[in-house]
Amino acid sequence: MDDRSTDSDPVTAGESSILDTLGEDVIRIVSPVSLCMLLVVLLVSSVSSTNDLSSSISSLFLSSTTTPTSFSSLNLLLLGSDSTWEEIKSALVTALSFVVVVTLLTFLLVLLFYFRCTNFLRIYMGISSLFVLSFLGGFISLLLISHFKIPIDPFTFAILLFNLSVVGVFAVFMPKFPISMNQGYLVAIGVLTAYWFTMLPEWTTWALLIAMSLYDLAAVLLPIGPLRLLVELAMSRNEEIPALVYEARPVDPQPGDRVRVWRERTDVRIEATENSTNSATVQTVQETRLAVSEEITAPLIEAFPQTGDRHLGTEEEEDGIGLGSSGAIKLGLGDFIFYSVLVGRAAMYDYMTVYACYLAIMAGLGVTLLLLAVYRKALPALPVSIMLGVVFYLLTRVLLEVFVVQCSSNLLMF
Amino acid sequence: MEGRDDQPTADVESGARLRPSAVRSRGAVTWPSVDGPLGVSWEEAETSARRFFFWGFAFLPLLWAVNCFYFWPVLVSKASPSSSPHFNRIRSYVVWSSIGFVIFAVLLTAWALTFAIGGEHLFGPMWKDLVMYNLADKLQLTGLM
């Protein structure tokens, strides 16, 4: 098993400190994030989807429904030629409108939660995740099938897809389900959404990442931020917010705790968290789809709680990451998605950027956990990691690659 | 930490791996589900097992598999005098679910392998129209998103 003694100093008898379980806690949140990123990188590199301007415009004219990139390509068409400056402008417009839509939808969520429409929210999120798992999952598996020429027949495909998506919805929203399946399906939803996001044009993706991390920072830390309001509402009522949050198993259920330490909200001392509804973020995803169709945009919007806000404390672990002695770490699914989008986009350039961005994101995650331990309040998980990731991506692409290529071509190193 | 080793069933760190021995003590099963102390209680377990079993008939054999996986400790252990009264009922649901899932899996695998391996020899030119990647191209399914 694990030897905690390496993690901590010897504690006095009967007293357990956070240090004893911190290593295991961190591993239990780093593994699914890494797995999600790995899967997105594998998907991106195996199925090279060319969603550049030309293909998106052609699909705009050929198919009756518009593609997700059509909004940005439409922007480009309106703005004129696709020079770099025009691309940047359209990317900024897209990202800003995305953030605006997310803000509005999060405020709507706060309002609905305030008026106790929790059932409606849960049903809505169930439908959204069903949509993501079936349509997006079906689409991506069709891409894989076409790419690898897997000889599957439509009957088997339909049965498998139907089963996997319906069971996935149950796994994510029903409380009495195997924990490993719940976690696995959350990671799967993260992978699917992140892959879909990487199909956006390049400048738009980067602008979106930066805009969302700034939004996350504002929404969680400002007093008027919607996510902060949501967290405070949920805390004051001691209620669960319907949301998609990844919750790691608690490392050490205390002997005196109740039986159900995972996903149980009735005991204040125990995490009771898991149901932090970090809705929002996904709403941004929907931004580009708003132009497409209502049913596509709406569902995904609420489905993914974005606020990677974390919460430290044994008493009020409501949202995000709780590092209490009886708590489990929770991380909003939006964080999974945006980390994986960054790494996936880096994979579209070269594997060197992937490694650099992965290390940057993990470092950012570590810094956020550290800040969480220091400040003991809800913190956004996106800003530090995304900013570090973007900086390292630029540095690698601009400086490191040139260096490595020159060394390799002159047979000096690497 | 001192208290940790005293719990025979609190093996939650490796909860993801199936450790039926971890949820068993002195021959009887302590926790009905594979999640151990984090999972359901015996009463809820019976409701869950029944629900999974009946919902599985709605073309969802994967729910039967989930049923077997979730109540694995019940499936692999025998009834003993010290086990809960719900044990037998849960076990019957789980056993029937496993039978259903195995039958379904065998049928589906047989069909899928026939389709994949038989290919054009068996089905003729119709195979090309039926196989998924051609069908997806024809129906422009990958262009929708």
UniProtKB/TrEMBL annotation, chain A:
**Organism expressing this protein natively:** Rhynchospora pubera
Pfam families cross-referenced by the UniProt entry = Presenilin
Query: Which GO cellular component terms, listed alphabetically, does the Swiss-Prot or TrEMBL entry include?
Result: endoplasmic reticulum membrane; gamma-secretase complex; Golgi membrane; Golgi-associated vesicle
Subunit text: Homodimer. Probable component of the gamma-secretase complex, a complex composed of a presenilin homodimer, nicastrin, APH1 and PEN2.
- Recorded E.C. number(s)? 3.4.23.-
Q: Where are the transmembrane segments?
A: 26-47, 59-79, 91-115, 127-148, 154-173, 185-200, 206-231, 355-375, 381-405
UniProt family annotation: Belongs to the peptidase A22A family.
One GO BP annotation of this record: protein processing
PANTHER family to which the protein is assigned, alphabetical: PRESENILIN, PRESENILIN HOMOLOG
Where is this gene product found? Endoplasmic reticulum membrane; Golgi apparatus membrane
Name used for this protein in its record = Presenilin
The membrane topology noted for this protein in its Swiss-Prot or TrEMBL record is: Multi-pass membrane protein
Entry's free-text remark on domains: The PAL motif is required for normal active site conformation.
What is the recorded function of this protein according to its Swiss-Prot or TrEMBL entry? Probable subunit of the gamma-secretase complex, an endoprotease complex that catalyzes the intramembrane cleavage of integral membrane proteins such as Notch receptors.
What UniProt keywords are attached to this protein's entry? Endoplasmic reticulum, Golgi apparatus, Hydrolase, Membrane, Notch signaling pathway, Protease, Transmembrane, Transmembrane helix
A molecular function GO annotation: aspartic endopeptidase activity, intramembrane cleaving
**Broad class of the protein's primary localization:** endoplasmic reticulum
Q: Report if keyword DNA repair is assigned.
A: no
Q: Does the keyword Membrane apply?
A: yes
Q: Which SMART domains match?
A: PSN
TrEMBL record, chain B:
Q: Where are the transmembrane segments?
A: 52-72, 93-117
Q: Which UniProt keywords apply?
A: Membrane, Notch signaling pathway, Transmembrane, Transmembrane helix
One GO cellular component term? gamma-secretase complex
The record gives the membrane topology as:
Multi-pass membrane protein
Question: Pfam families of this UniProt entry?
Answer: PEN-2 (PF10251)
User: Where does this polypeptide localize?
Assistant: Membrane
Q: Which PANTHER family match?
A: GAMMA-SECRETASE SUBUNIT PEN-2
The similarity comment for this entry is:
Belongs to the PEN-2 family.
Q: What is its main location?
A: membrane
In its UniProt entry, what is this protein called?
A: Gamma-secretase subunit pen-2
Q: A GO biological process this protein is involved in?
A: Notch signaling pathway
What species is this protein from?
Rhynchospora pubera
Record keywords: Nucleotidyltransferase included? no
